[in-house]
Amino acid sequence: MKITNVKVFVNCPDRNFVTVKIETDEGLFGLGDATLNGRELAVVAYLKEHIKPCLIGKDAHQIEDTWQYLYKGAYWRRGPITMTSIAGIDMALWDLKGKAAGMPVYQLLGGTSRSKIRVYGHANGQTISETLENLGRLIKEGYTAVRLQCAIPGLEGTYGTLGDKKDYLEMQSSRPLPPEQPWDTNKYLNFIPTLFKKAREEYGEEIQLLHDVHSRLTPIEASRLAKELEPYHLLFLEDPVPAENQSNYKIIRQHSTTPLAVGEVFNSIWDAKELIENHSIDYIRTAATHAGGITGLRKIIDFAGLHQIRTAPHGPPDISPIGHAAHAHLNIWANNFGIQEFVGFGGEKMATVFTHPLAYAEGHLYLNDLPGLGVSFNEQEAEKYPYKRSYLPVSRLEDGTLWDW
Questions:
Q1: Which of 69, 191, 356, 377 lies 20 to 30 A from 371 at CA?
Q2: CA distance linking residue 304 with residue 361, whole number of Å
Q3: Cβ-contact 36, 81 below 8 angstroms
Q4: For residue range 172-192, what is the model confidence (pLDDT) as tens digits?
């Protein structure tokens, strides 16, 4: 089965998505997700100008060889642009292979380790009472794990809250340049333990709680927060410090038993290698869309499993239904799967462009048995929603110093 064409689409049905379609001489095609929030067109250029010419005429069944060819053959390895581009191609090839075999991708990976995929939802709010009200709503919807984020008093636009914006795309595209948000570490550290104290007082211990620091703290500040959150028994504390310096997590480990999760900005196994080997984390959160696709993430999953570290793939709304389906196939296969971040299935526009194989019920996702990844993409509908240039926000301290967002 030879590759005859590689098509790349960039559209905005509520969010910007980069969709890859690989066509073959046997009439089959595969779909992949190559979305990189805020840098979509860089990936589009990489795919069209550098990858597509190399793949025409190649055997679509040679997934591993193609992955290595694109990873090693460019010499310039790793990096978000390269690995997201490879991810789009890799997912499309797995989708193709599943369709050719008449089997869902998880069967090609080795079958299932479970019948359903546990997910966690997001409870956000401008106040503690609003956040806890949203927590209660998610509990009623069947969630057994929920991430809590709340606006910090005195800080407009705290991460995880949107103020008067409906979603991050509206916030991103509302200005010609990246929106800026203020940050104050002391206000944050003095406030967040109260949020979790009140959550436990109101809802008890049965619901598992999570929190995303979003890389805002130094190692000793993160150690303080992790230690102060110990009484509230978090499922995990996400991204307490920036991920570039893996030794930072050793410091937090020395001070607290709060489980740690990291990895959404990782794009290869090398980013996570020391963290996994040193048992510095408990959950690895790397996304297939940003780490070389199913092939790339499977390497990380297998390595993490050797060290009793579980997976919790990044599941933001700026990954398309194709990427979420790829996670579902990996999640239902991987023995060391932990939990999947889940923010819903998108709006009406999304539903006209993508159909997907997932259904939510009682805190879990269920995956059907359609061949390949099980996602369809309506090219004509997608054309109705052109790309909108947008940027993720940036943070600044009150004195103007640029900080981590």
A1: 69
A2: 28
A3: yes
A4: 666 678 989 999 999 999 999
